[in-house]
Amino acid sequence: MNDLPVISLNWENSYRIIPTLFPEKTLFDEICSYDELEYVYYIESLTNNRIAKASKFNTDNFGAYYASKDLQTAIYETVYHREKFYAENNAPPAPYHMRVYDAKIKGDNFYDITEKDIYEKYYDPENYTESQNLGIESKKENKDGIVYSSVRHDTGVNIAVLRPKIIIPPAKISKNLIYYWDGKKISTVTDLGKGKNLLSCNKK
Question: Residue 196: pLDDT band by 50, 70, 90 thresholds?
Fold first, then answer.
C-alpha cells in the first residue's frame, strides 16, 4: 500500500449520524479522556451495526468509526443507508429520530484516497473487496484511518477512523433530526431545533 498518499488531518468538526428512539444522553456525552473513549468505542462496536458488521473499509473482525467532514454529507450518506435498511425490512411509514455527533479528529497517519478517478477500485458500490483489503492493510500498518470522497454528495469527504484515539473527546450531540420515511423513500430530514428541512432536492 506504499503507493497511497499518507496525510495529516485536523478537523475541528466531524459529523456522525446514528438512529435513536428519542433524544437522549449517551455514553459519548460523558467522555473526558482518551482511555474512556477507547472503552466507549469498544462498547458501541458491539451494538452499532455500522461498526460491528462488515462495511466499506472494515470486516467482521474489526470496526471503523465512520463520519463526514460536513453535516450535509453525513445526511446524504445516512439517508441512503437508512432508505436501504427500511426498504429491506418493510418498515412502516413513520418519523425516525436520529442524533448527530460532532467530534474533532486529529492525526498524522491517514491514507488519502479522495481522488476517485485515481483510486476508482476502492469506490465499487456493490463490491467492497478492494476497500476492505485496504482497511485490513491499514489496520495492520497501524494507520489512523482512511479519508475518502463521498459517492452520495459530490463535494463531500468522509473518514473511516481505525484508531479511536484520534477522535478528540468530548464527542457531543450537536443536533437531533427526524428522518421521515414515507414507505418508499426518506422525503424530508427535519432539524428538531429549527424545524428546517435539511434534505435538498439534489441528493443522489
Answer: confident
